[in-house]
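User: Round two. Same drill as before: sequence, then structure, for each protein.

Assistant: Same drill it is. First protein:
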Amino acid sequence: MKKSLSLLFALIGWFAVTAQFVLMIENRMAPVAETIIRFFSFFTILTNILVAGYFTLLSFKPAIVHKPGILTAVTVYIFMVGSVYQFVLRATWKPEGLQLIVDELLHTVIPVLVIIFWTMYENKKAVTFGQIPKWVIYPVAYLVYILIRGSVSNFYPYPFVNVSEIGITKTLLNSAALVLVFFMIATLFVTAGRYFSKKRQEGAASS
């Protein structure tokens, strides 16, 4: 069951990312090379690639990603993708047709699937709060990258980090807020995981 779900989720993830790439190339407003760089400048894309890669490895080389905490980190990342989109970005555009389908896969369906998988298969008892600082390296490195590249190309993938429009002070405040929210969500997942793990043990002991 676990391997079958991993393979299915990997296929869904790669389809969504590939379809988004094709759509972005077809509807590009910049040269192909710049469009490709911009494609890989979206946290949504990078994180969905991470998700697809994780489930691909889990399907064929599970020993590489078996360590407790890896799935939780991936789940927190994709949860951030879904949450920011639903509460901040959804109202900013109205996709149609295939773009709508891909958009929902990347921001809604895949986050939900990953959370369900985390609920079913993560070794929650073995995940620790001490792992969280390592998990935050990825989003912080991403923010540093887009701010540096944006200062050169003047392209910022999200309005809340668009220095050209909102200024560097507001951008840094927004970035700090996002990192703080990430810490809070990660802490929530670890706490919830431990709680449900404890409840499951208590239920098994009493049965």
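Second protein:
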Amino acid sequence: MDTQPYGGKYDGVIGVLTALEVIRTLNDKDIKTERPIVIVNFTNEEGARFMPPLLGSGAALGDVSKTSVYETVDAEGINFETALHESGYQGKEAHRIKDAHAFIELHIEQGPVLEQRQKSIGIVQGIQGLAWLTVHVKGEADHAGTTPMSGRKDALVAASSMVTALSKYASSVEELVITVGTLQVAPSAPNVIPSDVTFTIDMRHPDDHMRKGVPMAIRKIISDTSKMYDVDFTLETNAQTETVHFPERIRNILLEETSSLEYEAEQLYSGASHDAKNMSRIAETGMIFVPSANGKSHHEEEYTSDADIEKGANVLLRAAKRLADEK
């Protein structure tokens, strides 16, 4: 149920609420399943307060140690252990999930595809792989009033050209998305030519083979641009993750249940990461998407209609019961 600064009220939250509705419906009708159904509300999926994202599911599956999680601090210097203890939800290691028959997560799409194609349900094929890169551009600081334009080594002008070139490149490659989300300028004074700029690159593509070749293209773009503006640069890779492909069996179950309800479905990859990505290592995993109005997410204007949420919940109910009744 965590969110982003100025985030909306649907991202993540409806997954928890629809899961509760599934359990309530089964209980109200006194329906017993062959396997138990458990709701999991993972801590710190977004990574907005404590980095990295998916911290709760990552810790639960042993990707990160309890010590390193507890020592992680937020912007105010409060460590994770203190915040967890104060929340009243500090669990025990013995209660961590060890295995599962299946895992289903319902989520808003956070993009425009379902709305544009007028589909109520998205069947998620998997979660795109990504790479996070950091670029440092090194120029020369000089006086803004006395240095002629022809003699400048302006790191910000060079970096701006790099960002523009990267955007054009991404637009030319199908399914590739590149985002420059942070930019730091030094010395950051109005009358000094910038000498140093650092910016980040978030690059995503569902095809791992394709994605692994993109950093080389990025390096060439940055190298060519740096020569054009007579500046230096360094490029480092901070993180890379492979694309997670959800099993066809689970996707087919979701498609069949969607069809039985006479809803229209679209199969698509998720450009955002979710706890389902981690859970796919210990259980057959699937995701259900419901439309996001105007593709908005991580924004106060985020909206999904009650009718679409209800449809998603109905698919979740049927899929959960069907999987829980498997021997």
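The first helix runs from residue 13 to 28.

User: Perfect.
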